Amino acid sequence: MFVYYFLKYLVKFAFQVFFRKVYFTGTQNIPRRHSIVFAVNHPTAFLDPIALAGILPHILHFMLRGDIFTTRLVRWFLAEIKTIPIFRFRDGFSSLKNNHSTFEIVYDKLHQKDNILILAEGIAKHEKKMRPIQKGTARMVFGTYEKHGKEDTIIIPVGVNYTDSDAFRSFMMVDFGRPIAMSDYLDYHAENPRKAIKKLTEAISEGMLERIVHIEDDADAEFTNVLLDIQRHNFRFPVLPVLDYRDRRLLEAELALTQRVNALDAEAKSSLQQRSLAYRDALRERGLDDLGLAQPQRHSWRNGLILLLGALPFALGYLLNILPLRLARYLADSKVTKIEFHSSVRFGAGAVGYVIYWLLALLVATIVGGSTGLAWVLCMPIFGFFALHYRDFYLAYRSAGKLSRIGAQELAQLQKERGQLLQLVTQSTAAVKVG
After folding, report:
1. How sure is the predictor about 94, in pLDDT bands with cuts at 50, 70 and 90?
2. How far from 393 is each of 191, 217, 304, CA to CA, in Å?
3. How would CATH label the architecture of 2-214?
């Protein structure tokens, strides 16, 4: 268990470095003293499952591609972190037969009141969209009932959302839905097990969709993301807490906006697409970005003074901590070809690399500098955390400062167009609903 808990706390800390804000809302919906199956969407390779495993207090067992379980050492490590091999069709028919053993393990663990995390879509896809939910979650729950007679298993639908999962210092929003009791579907199971699986899968799908930022039509993704950026930049986010268990405002706003876009007719979408992309291109042509237009007050003499006063601790934090983070970025940029794996590799390499780097620095500093060197190394993460937030503050200050490149009349026109874009979404949707 040492390996599991060490990585659990490392992951919890690392998420608060990689992301600017991590929202974990709806945790009050997770019941105690029940076997729980967390049904989760899957926009990245492995950030989604390890976020829940690292941040929730529960011990979670989760499925992992069976072809990774290769050497004895790898199998030992993966067992230590509570993973269970699951084989796919592409792994070959002979490998698929091993899934019988996997299901038996899951049945037994649920019977023992362990918790299981299942990536219910069955595939990782870098997009703001919920893909069709597979029937495996429902089959495992009913399989536990059929083997052990266990009736009190609970399914929690979970939505994992990123403002941009591939961007360092973006936002992560995880929302836990209301519990779905397997016992509510036992009458269907008595009538027809296949019908019970279908009904439970539909309930899981509905519960997940309520909390996933979902752009129905792939053709709408580009301009909808422009609108999401515009809306998001209207928010002011407190620095602390980085890990927030209460605030759903950003998630609710993004859910509402995508639902409005999905409801528009083709003509309204086409108009909104043209205007939003034209606005984005106009900013790019002038070297501006939307954050500056949303928060022009960020470029002030007071904020400039704050940046000046914080420059020295920022420089210390940057220089003392940058090496493992830069190496992780280089590794992800140079070795990863699929976007779904990019942030996962960067996150994992950065977290593990930083621990090794910090331990080596601790050893060297203690030998060379004694207690003074030890004190400096112990302060490294504190300076690093300051440097991250100084960087965020500076980028907002710089974005607002870019507005000086254009005249007052041109600025007013851009701000007017910006304001009208979001109004257009609301007005168009209202017209669709009335009609």
Report:
1. low
2. 60, 35, 10
3. 3-Layer(aba) Sandwich (3.40)
Q: Which residue in this structure is represented by tokens 């851009």?
A: 414
For every residue of 334-366, DSSP letters joined together read HH--SHHHHHHHHHHHHHHHHHHHHHHHHHHHH
**143 and 103 Cβ atoms separated by less than 8 Å:** yes
What span, in angstroms and rounded, lies between the C-alpha atoms of 339 and 325? 19
Residue 331 has phi, psi (to 5 degrees) of: -60, -45
- The number of helix segments (H) and strand segments (E) in the chain equals 15, 9
Extents of the domains making up the chain: 2-214, 220-286+409-434, 297-405
Report the amino acid identity of residue 71. Answer: T
**How would you classify the pairing of strands 180-181 and 154-162?**
antiparallel
Strand (E) or helix (H) holding 61: strand 60-65
Q: How many residues does the chain have?
A: 435
Q: What is the pLDDT of residues 40-84, one digit of tens each?
A: 999 999 999 999 999 999 999 988 877 777 788 888 988 899 998
CA dihedral 218, 224, 229, 231 (to 10 degrees): -140
Average pLDDT over residues 223-251: 95
* pTM for this entry: 0.93
What is residue 132's three-state secondary structure? coil
Cβ–Cβ < 8 Å for 58, 36 = yes
Token pair, residue 390, equals 């100084």
Six token digits for residue 113: 């009141």
